[in-house]
Design goal:
Layout (H helix, E strand, L loop, with lengths): L2 H18 L9 E6 L4 E6 L6 E3 L3 H9 L5 E4 L3 H5 L12 H6 L13 H4 L6 E4 L2 E6 L2 H23 L9 H23 L11
Antiparallel strand pairs: 1-2, 1-4, 2-3, 4-6, 5-6
């Protein structure tokens, strides 16, 4: 099975999974998968039955250009991810799994010119004009990241709204987890540059 066939089938699987969990909400919601070695992507809106192979989808293309390790993007998250716009537009690293797979969340942005700064720390989630954008090295990792982000956002938003203290993880825990994430991203970037699909990250 070729990469195109694999990615087209994977797109449908990811779209269905995220839509079933109400993680593709709002105008502009959609999923894309980078096609290694081609400069193109499989893209479709949340309501599409199948993706299209395209050379340029403005928001997605700009994100791929800013992050050579990213193989998949979902725009339009869940209710609690969107609520972060009312709490500063970003979420501290509060949970172990969040630090390991989502990394440090950059500030919310309003234009593609701001992506490079916001994504510099290697985070896999951000708000763009109040809309959740999740990234992943692979399609499967993207789906997991989107689900993880909404779960963490729910816990954080409810705690912050109740006025309770929300403390980030100790610095050394974040340092180790972020370091492992950066290694995954480095390997993914190398594979994509070679025209290959990234390998799935395993374990913590």
């Amino acid at each position: 099975m070729g990469i195109d066939t694999t990615l087209r089938a994977l797109w449908i699987e990811i779209r269905d999974r995220l839509a079933a969990r109400q993680l593709l909400r709002g105008a502009g919601a959609g999923v894309s998968l980078r096609i290694p070695g081609s400069g193109e992507l499989w893209f479709g809106a949340a309501a599409d039955e199948a993706p299209r192979r395209l050379a340029d989808v403005p928001l997605h293309t700009a994100l791929y250009a800013a992050r050579p390790d990213v193989g998949a993007i979902a725009v339009g998250g869940g209710v609690f991810g969107a609520c972060l716009a009312d709490f500063g537009g970003r979420m501290p690293e509060v949970f172990d799994e969040q630090a390991r797979h989502l990394g440090r969340m950059g500030p919310a942005v309003r234009s593609t010119e701001s992506f490079v700064t916001s994504l510099r720390a290697g985070g896999n989630a951000l708000l763009v004009d109040g809309v959740t954008v999740c990234l992943g090295t692979t399609g499967s990792r993207l789906a997991l990241n989107a689900e993880l982000f909404e779960k963490c956002a729910k816990a954080y938003v409810l705690a912050a709204a109740a006025g309770g203290p929300v403390k980030p993880l100790p610095w050394w825990v974040r340092h180790i987890a972020n370091g492992r994430l950066r290694k995954d991203q480095g390997r993914a970037a190398a594979r994509l540059a070679q025209g290959l699909l990234p390998e799935e990250s395993r374990g913590y």
